Amino acid sequence: MSSTPPGGQRTLQKRRQAQTAKDKQAKQTPTSARTAGHGGSSNSILKIYTDEANGLRVDPLVVLFLAVGFIFSVVALHVISKVTGKLF
User: Fold this and answer.
1) Domain map (residue ranges) of the chain
2) In sequence order, which residues have a C-beta less than 8 Å from that of residue 41 and are 6 or more positions away?
3) Where are the stretches annotated Disordered (predicted)?
C-alpha cells in the first residue's frame, strides 16, 4: 500500500493558508469600537441598521405606524363591543 502518512506537506500548507487568512482578517477588522466607527461593539444591535443584516428591511417609521394602527384597532374594537353590547 502506498498511502501517505497523516500530516506532512499538505497539512503544513493548509495550516499556513489558514494562518495567513486569519492574519489578513485580523488586519482588516478594527480592534476597538472607536476605530470601528460605532459607539459600542461592532457586533451589536447596530448591525440591524447596516447592509450586513439579512432578511426584511423595514423603515422604523413604518413599524411605528403599524404599531399605532394596531393599538387603535384594538381600542376601536373594544369600544364597538361595549356599544353594541348595550344596544342589543
Assistant:
1) 58-87
2) 33
3) 1-44
